[in-house]
Amino acid sequence: MKADPIGVATGSHYIDGDHACAEGAIAAGCRFLAGYPITPSTEVAERVAERFPFVGGQFIQMEDELASMAAVSGAVWGGAKSMTVTSGPGFSLMMENLGLATMMEVPCVLVNVQRGGPSTGLPTLTGQADMMQARWGSHGDYELISICPNSPQECFDLTIEAFNLSEKWRVPVMFMMDECVGHMIEKVVIPEADKIEITPREFYKGDKEKYRPFRFDGKGIAPMVKAGDGYFIHITGLTHDERGYPVINEQAQDKNVRHLVDKILKNEDKIRIIEEDQIDGADVVVVSYGITSRVALKAVELARKKGIKVGIMRLITVWPFPESRIRELAPKVKAFVVPEINLGQICLEVERCAQGKAKTTLVSHAGGWVHDPADILKAIEEGVK
Amino acid sequence: MDIRFSGFGGQGIIKSGTLIGKAASLYSNKFGTMTQSFGPEARGGACSAQVVIDDKPVLYPYILSPEILVSMSQEAYEKFIKDPEKGSIVLTDTDLVKPKTIRKDVKMYSIPSTRIAEEMGNRIFANVVMVGFFTAITKVVGLEAMKKALPGSVPDRFIDINIEALERGYNFGIELLEKEQPKKKAKAKA
Fold first, then answer.
1. Which pLDDT belongs to residue B113?
2. A185 to chain B: which residues are within 8 Å by CB?
3. Where are the alpha helices (DSSP H) in chain A?
4. What pLDDT score was predicted for residue A175?
5. Which one of A170, B23, B86, B136 is most buried, counting C-beta atoms within 10 A?
6. Which residues in chain A are contacts of B31 at CB distance < 8 A?
7. Does domain B2-189 have CATH number 3.40.920.10?
8. Distance (Å) from the C-alpha of residue A295 to the closest C-alpha of chain B?
9. Chain centroid offset of residue A169 CA
10. Nearest to A185 among B34, B60, B62 (CB)
11. Whether the domain at A5-195 and the domain at A275-384 fall into the same CATH topology
12. What is the Cα–Cα distance from A197 to A165, expressed in whole angstroms?
């Protein structure tokens, strides 16, 4: 399906990542945003609030982030493509209702413009330290999709992708920006609406008696219905059967939770978006994501000038983690170098998947700024030895 | 080309950076990445906009030692004057910056941008006067590209007066450069 032209601001713009994300959401068909302002994510909500009246969307400034995430789930079951936007402390507050959305298989997008943490940390400065929280933040076993853009243009393009993936797999998608990308202003080209591919929500139209809001047979994702369309459905955070009714036993738990995990992990190759460059024959592969992937590229350029064989793997989808790809590469390279603006998160995943077959070096940064390319270069040089 | 625009919050420093980046990216076939840094306060605090302009996509978005520094406040000048490399261009507001730290290895130019804006009726245009001055002195982007960058970045009803502010700053810069020329020639003769 193509995008609805009413929401597509076709043309060349000079805007920041936050505004580009807002435009991407509107182009993707998002018509509901519930949120609570927090630096550095506020501009996303501001832009959406400004634009929604012209496209038939609804923005609600909620009393807090708990309510924001709850309202998003409600709006989705009401039929709207929906999102919320936050940062650091707000992301923490959303975790409980994110778990509920995961359990109810609510397709939605949660934007986190990452800043330095923990707690209120560095409100106006960048960080990438919420990557594990995006994966493990709510309790229980589940799997989500996380996407990391590295430019305002990608904030537009990948927000659309985030909505598409959320609809396809009926899952909340974490759109993990960071302050640097969010506040960075660059040229953003928004194409014509008929050049933008949109995944529409699949709605059930059949017999009311036969409708099941969930499907746990591993053969697909159940279509949804809209509240108010006359279907008597039950959705809950409790472990449930395919009708959505609570079933509190071991067998139901096994079916329900394995489904949440398997629908993502068993389709990792279909969900995965990664960029690779000069991996073949490389001695060192730099694995990076978000803003750090740009800074890393600068370091890689310097290393290549010195004659070092360096490959690049950029994770656009960080979760589900491209486990099989790292396993495949590990025996062929000497080292993985993982720069990230935290004290070691995704680096642990790389190390786990490399299974000791290649050295894994973290280039850490506590937040507040991006890496000095020289630090990444140093790790690359050590990796070759 | 690494550029830093600096001053205090409320002067339109970020807007100035945006105008230059937009003129470069949308109207000059270049890549312009702008980043900003500011404190938690909205107005009055030190603030700066960094613009990196290149012929190829910009990888590292921040700048360490700018080739052009613009300072519209004393605090910003004293904070950033140590950064530019030798031979860089430094632009200041004549009335707002009274340099305590003098660097002889950079090219200094100054304009009473706030005073010119006040003559036009409102000091709010000071940043655009400075952008015009910047355009004339540095030639990083052309005056026409700068003018094209105004619509959408300033309210429609103020476009004409912003163009005037831009031109006043630009003309001041051109005159300053012309005055400088004979001096150089004279030196060359001597």
1. 97
2. 17-18, 21-22, 33-35
3. 17-28, 42-55, 65-77, 88-103, 131-136, 152-169, 179-183, 250-265, 268-271, 291-305, 323-329, 346-354, 373-384
4. 98
5. B23
6. 186-187
7. yes
8. 5
9. 13
10. B34
11. yes
12. 12
Looking at the predicted structure, is the pLDDT value of residue B190 above 60? no
pLDDT at A186 over 80: yes
- Which residues is A32 bridged to in the sheet? A58, A82
Residue with token string 């460059």: A277
What's the gap in Å between the CA of A280 and the closest CA on chain B? 23
The tens digit of pLDDT for each residue in A241-285 reads 999 999 999 999 999 999 999 999 999 999 999 999 999 999 999
Query: How many residues comprise chain B?
Result: 190
Round to whole Å and give the CA distance between A21 and A93: 22
Question: Which member of B26, B33, B40 has the closest CB to residue A123?
Answer: B40
The answer to whether residues B145 and B131 touch, using CB atoms and an 8 Å cutoff, is no
Which residue in B18, B40, B60 is closest to A373 by CB distance?
Answer: B60
Tokens of B111: 């304009």
Task: Indicate the residue of B31, B34, B59 with minimum beta-carbon distance to A294.
Answer: B59
Rounded Cα distance, A286 and A361, in Å:
9
Residue B189, pLDDT > 60, answer no
Task: For chain A, give the mean pLDDT.
Answer: 97
The domain limits of chain B are 2-189
Q: Are A75 and A32 in contact (CB under 8 A)?
A: yes
What pLDDT does B47 receive? 86
What integer pLDDT is reported at residue B182 of this predicted model?
73
Which residues on B lie below 8 Å from A373 (Cβ)? 60
Mutate to test the interface with A, among B16, B50, B60 (most CBs of A within 10 A): B60
Residue, of B184 and B124, whose pLDDT is higher: B124
- Provide Rg for chain A, Cα atoms: 21
Q: Are A101 and A174 in contact (CB under 8 A)?
A: no
Contact A287, A346 (CB under 8 A): yes
- Cα separation, B75 vs A377, in Å, equals 35
- Enter the pTM of the model: 0.95
What pLDDT, on a 0 to 100 scale, did the predictor assign at position B181?
Answer: 81
pLDDT band at A328 (very low <50, low <70, confident <90, very high): very high
CATH number assigned to the domain with residue range A275-384, chosen from the 4 options 3.30.930.10, 2.60.120.260, 3.40.640.10, 3.40.50.920: 3.40.50.920
Average of per-residue pLDDT across B53-82:
93
Cβ contact, residue pair A187, B26, below 8 Å: yes
The residue ranges of every structural domain in chain A are: 5-195, 275-384
Q: What is the pLDDT of residues B32-67, one digit of tens each?
A: 999 987 666 556 677 899 999 999 999 999 888 899
Rounded to whole angstroms, how far apart are CA atoms A194 and A76? 25
Reply yes or no on domain A5-195 having CATH 3.60.15.10.
no
* Best mutation target, B19, B25, B50, to test chain A (most A CBs within 10 A): B25
3-state secondary structure at position A291: helix
